[in-house]
Design a protein that fits this description.
- Chain A is built from 1 helix and 9 strands, in the order βαββββββββ.
- Chain A has 141 residues and is an all-beta fold.
- The longest helix of chain A is centred in the N-terminal third of the chain and has 4 residues.
- Chain A starts with a strand and ends with a strand.
- Chain B is an alpha/beta fold.
- In chain B, 29% of the residues lie in helices and 16% in strands.
- Chain B has 12 helices and 11 strands.
- A 5-stranded mixed sheet of chain B has the order 1-7-4-2-3, sandwiched between helices.
- In chain B, a hairpin with a 2-residue loop joins strand 5 and strand 6.
- The chains are: A mainly beta (141), B alpha/beta (392).
- The interface between A and B is large, with 39 and 40 residues.
Chain lengths: 141, 392
């Protein structure tokens, strides 16, 4: 996994007790997702209790970072003046037992090349102490 | 045997304000207009109203924005003597209706005013909200979307529609029949903000917002309001007009409250609500004489058609094709007022007002034949609610 320098300023959340593991967890190069130690379910965002097996044995855990594109949209609306359009927003599903689905952009890829079923891996874009998880085609540098 | 108390409640009155595409009249005043129109339509006096509810929560003493009138400000303006009032989120935009039925069933109230007030044109809009270059600090759910430059429900819903359309074969040309048909209906509705017809060529050439949605797939922000009076059936004064009664309500949420983490993605909360609706009645989709389905984005109407069992996934495209089946004289007239795509965004409350008018035979040039049973739905994504109303 790699961490990239900032290319485009992103609107970023304030860190709190329920989201720090996700937004700061990438400091070790891995994506961290809430996990049930009893039934092995991953879930997102934070819950204090496993909604599947009703266990309190839940905590953030690192995941493989491998995912599949579930769907995507080519955005043409210039929501933010500093972000050139069109750009892709894709929904990816992690390979772990969940489902756990996250959004990503793929600025390095042609907009029409990002299709459902595409295998992707996580990488991080560092903004201060926040590491924004992003995904790109598996095997890409 | 379970008693379904909605069946002993009626919609005694329905009213709207004028709809404004540009900010002209202060939105709070429009909310008061709609409420007064609904009370007068019910044949009631203001003093008869003993409950009030709205969705969603509205800030007190702020009369604009996306929830432009708080119940207590309406109360103060009209001098209501309330036994009960509320404003909260709940299961979609019809949560206030479900709550009103509950308050009547509990014996708190006889006549509850429910309304939806929009004043989004008075304040900066989604589309230009970040135009000054300042980046917001997203909180709550928005922290999962805004960092990826996806601050709008257009994007979130497009991600559902993309998968659904690939799975079912629904095409943009077929989906286009929803906005095209509604614009045709809006031409017969003097209160609609957009009344010029659009063609399939117009649709296919239109500015894209985010694939598969062009500008005609997105509802139209307005300043305006719609209101209904929900009454205990036996508290309504005798009238020669047909009575519009609740047959069933659907407010269920069984999967996670989540845009992206439902196990049955790209299904939405509406699938839970629709199942509950039909579980409380012997009527079926075959009994419908009109449908008034949420159209914040045209694809949401497709998903409501499928969730309600009006069409089956994979067959909705063929159902919509050509537009005849959903026209005013078609198999199932759909969004006969022009809906949010043409009349304006009132989060399905304008659909409800229209359904009441259709069932009473008061829809003028838009009247459908032999209107008896109408379904109304509100919401997309995390929450949804549906109402089945009948002419008694």
């Amino acid at each position: 996994m790699t961490t990239e320098s900032v290319s485009l300023a992103r609107p970023l959340p304030a860190i709190n007790e329920m989201n720090g593991y996700f937004w700061r967890g990438g400091a070790d190069g891995r994506l961290h997702i809430m996990h049930c130690g009893d039934c092995d379910l991953y879930f997102h965002p934070y819950q204090s209790f496993c909604s599947a097996c009703h266990s309190a044995n839940v905590a953030p855990a690192p995941v493989s970072g491998r995912a599949t594109v579930l769907s995507s949209t080519i955005n043409h609306q210039p929501w933010f003046p500093h972000v050139p359009v069109p750009y892709v927003v894709a929904l990816v599903e992690l390979e772990e037992r969940g489902p756990v689905r996250l959004l990503t952009n793929m600025f390095g890829e042609p907009v029409d090349a990002i299709v459902p079923g595409m295998l992707v891996t996580v990488h991080f874009e560092q903004h201060g102490d926040i590491f924004v998880p992003l995904f790109r085609p598996a095997g890409a540098a | 045997m379970t008693t379904y108390f909605e069946k002993s409640c009626v919609i005694s009155g329905a009213g709207m304000s004028t709809m404004y595409r540009k900010p002209q009249v202060y939105p709070f005043n429009l909310a008061v207009d709609a409420c007064r129109n609904a009370i007068a339509d019910a044949g009631l006096e203001i003093g008869d109203i003993d409950g009030i509810a709205c969705w969603p929560h509205a800030a007190v003493h702020v009369g604009h924005g996306s929830s432009a009138a708080s119940p207590v400000d309406i109360k103060n303006s009209l001098g209501l003597k309330l036994n009960w009032f509320e404003a909260g989120m709940g299961p979609g935009q019809f949560a206030s209706i479900a709550n009103a039925i509950g308050a009547i069933a509990a014996g708190y109230c006889n006549h509850v005013l429910c309304y939806r007030a929009e004043g989004e044109r008075w304040v900066p809009m989604y589309g230009s909200a970040f135009a000054d270059g300042n980046l917001p600090t997203p909180e709550g759910f928005n922290q999962w979307t805004t960092p990826y430059f996806a601050p709008s429900a257009a994007t979130w819903i497009a991600l559902h529609a993309d998968l659904h359309m690939r799975q079912t074969g629904l095409t943009r040309e077929q989906m286009a029949m929803i906005p095209i048909n509604q614009r045709k209906n809006a031409a017969l509705n003097p209160n609609a903000v957009y009344r010029e017809p659009i063609t399939l060529d117009d649709y296919l050439a239109a500015r894209m917002i985010t694939t598969p949605f062009c500008i005609f797939d997105c509802d139209v922000p307005i300043d305006g309001a719609a209101a209904v009076v929900i009454s205990r059936a036996d508290a309504v004064p005798a009238s020669s007009r047909p009575t519009v009664r609740f047959e069933a309500v659907g407010t269920a949420l069984h999967e996670h409250f989540s845009w992206f983490q439902r196990r049955d993605f790209p299904n939405m909360a509406m699938n839970d609500a629709a199942k509950m609706l039909w579980s409380r009645t012997d009527l079926t989709p075959d009994d419908l004489t009109s449908a008034h389905l949420y159209d914040g984005f045209s694809w949401l109407t497709v998903l409501w058609l499928e969730a309600l069992g009006i069409t089956r996934p994979g067959e909705t495209g063929a159902f919509l094709e050509g537009g005849q089946r959903i026209a005013l004289d078609g198999l199932l007239p759909l969004n006969t007022n022009g809906g949010q795509l043409s009349e304006g965004r009132l989060h399905a409350f304008n659909h409800l007002v229209e359904a009441v008018r259709q069932l009473r035979g008061e829809a003028g040039d838009r009247q459908v034949a032999d209107a008896k049973v109408a379904v109304c739905s509100a919401g997309g994504g995390v929450f949804g609610s549906a109402l089945l109303i009948v002419r008694d």
